[in-house]
């Protein structure tokens, strides 16, 4: 008898819990729906950002200014040069007389490349000896030079095969007749290749999830509705879950919009497991919602919450490997980066979208996200009390 | 009669400032108690402690038989608390707000209850209107309806009629008495003397201390205050000169001047020079509640200054 009574009590407690969570959720959904402008922004921002980063910020620029120092002016050397121009990456804008002059142009950043054809180019080629074309590249921005340099070799080879006719035809046959010597100047490593779209997903989700929850909860304190809510039987956990649910939905929609657009516009899809991707996205959205909630528990006004959110979000763009290569940062900055959920999420998205990573490859990052979710939620719940005690202004 | 509220020695401090200082208060079921006192006297803080929104730094007691410190959940389910600021969501419609509150309390027959509430409020035709567009009087009636939705046994109202016109205030108080007649206990804070006079009993709080508790007439008679009323011309001038005298309060009300003091001899002496002014007529009267409150406030301030 006692047992059934206890079971019944537990059932009614659960019903109460569900009812109050639903109540808060419905309220929050209505609030979002009534604020059409914010709703449109939430859905349009990902699209705008994706288009901006995808198109306006071109990571594959063409028609780069190039200086040519042609010490050898034969038909064959002209063939080689026009082959380089035809890749579309190089545009011969300068024809300096000396190498020193060309180096100065490169130094000043007036040209991206210097192409040098040595004076014995044709002579050596005709004799059947190996010959060279030299390209000096300004590799300060490695992204800019990667594609042009990759295209140069095949272009020259193809042009020689086509244009060497008659007695010289045999020379074009073997592919190593012309050696392409490339100097990456200023940044010889040039390893900073990163992909914008997977990182962008992390940034957009961070911004909208953190900001949205931080403001949604702080607004209740500022408008005085929280006092009313706290005087009801609604408990902190119930309010938190109820408030988070609608924004979780918004975050999922944003994720799908970004994925769809990046696939349609840039052909970047998910190479790894879609289920793993979904799991990572869910974890990441939840962590950010919890961070937003935590900000709201330490802020008294919406303005304060906004500022705190910016403080949290700035490192998300700078220290997570989204804007700047993670390995290029000093170790303290890397340590800060490791503390940010976005760092781990970017690694997961890059892994799954670009490299086709397996569960084992990203297990550590997933675990990091899970730990962060638990820690932040626990902190938030311990700070968010049922009373107005913390932060209550001396009442009139 | 059982006690709806029984608290003793409640203390609340914000930093070094003691906002509520050893407040003890008992309130019988079905009574309407007015919580009066100057701004910053700790009325809101006391109400918040009684409904479980603030944790007392000292003292304790029961609310509807539940322990103030340990049984907050049970208390919250059975009280209706109307905050000083409008506590409903202005971006939601009237009906959506009531539905939200109803769901939070897990009420059955939600639809019917809300229809009834809207009918009583005369808001049925405007139920899809944004709450933010309502006038102050309507907002206050809606807030009251919202905290009555779950049929609480105790109402805590924090300055419910601030900024509301007299007609709406009267309607509001008629409803309060109607509720009390059906067994509801009401603790309501107010600054309005006419409202204080409509309460069964009053609790006067100043600087965190309960200075008087009882029916309005009791408080007046226990105050030991003596009062005269002067009628005639030049009262404003007279008020100014009397106000300078130690221990004398003087306030002009239109064509009459109220002069009161705790010391009958000092009062006689103060008004003696004007007693035979042919332009004035003098009567000894019962002091008003306002006289008493202003007197109590002055005493408390003296105490605070001494301490």
Describe the protein's architecture and organization.
The complex is a heterodimer of chains A (396) and B (307). With 396 residues, chain A is of the alpha/beta class. Chain A has 2 domains: 2-34 and 194-383, no CATH class; 64-185, abc type-2 transporter like fold, CATH 3.40.1710. Chain A has 15 helices and 5 strands. Chain A has a 5-stranded mixed β-sheet with strand order 2-1-3-4-5, sandwiched between helices. Chain B is built from 11 helices and 14 strands. Chain B has a 6-stranded mixed β-sheet, with helices on both faces. A 4-stranded antiparallel β-sheet of chain B has the order 2-1-4-5, covered by helices on one side. The longest helix of chain B is centred in the C-terminal third of the chain and has 18 residues, at 289-306. The model of chain B has no long low-confidence stretch (mean pLDDT 89). The chains are: A alpha/beta (396), B alpha/beta (307). Chains A and B meet through helix 1 and helix 9 of A and helix 1, helix 2 and helix 3 of B.
Q: Proportion of β residues of chain B?
A: 25-35%
Tally of distinct domains of chain A: 2
Succession of helices and strands of chain B: EEEHEEHEHHHEHEHEEHEHEEHEH
| Topology of chain A as a string of helices (H) and strands (E) | HHEHEHEHEHHEHHHHHHHH
CATH architecture identity of the largest domain in chain B: 3-Layer(aba) Sandwich
Distance between the termini of chain B: 39 Å
CATH hierarchy, class of the largest domain in chain B: Alpha Beta
- By DSSP (H or I, 4+ residues per run), the number of helices of chain A equals 15
Number of domains of chain B: 2
Main interface by residue count: A-B, 32 and 40 residues
CATH superfamily heading of the largest domain in chain B:
P-loop containing nucleotide triphosphate hydrolases
Shape of chain B: globular
CATH topology-level fold name of the largest domain in chain B: Rossmann fold
Please give the count of helices of chain B. Answer: 11
Query: How far apart are the first and last residues' alpha carbons of chain A, in Å?
Result: 51 Å
Biggest β-sheet description of chain A: 5 strands, mixed
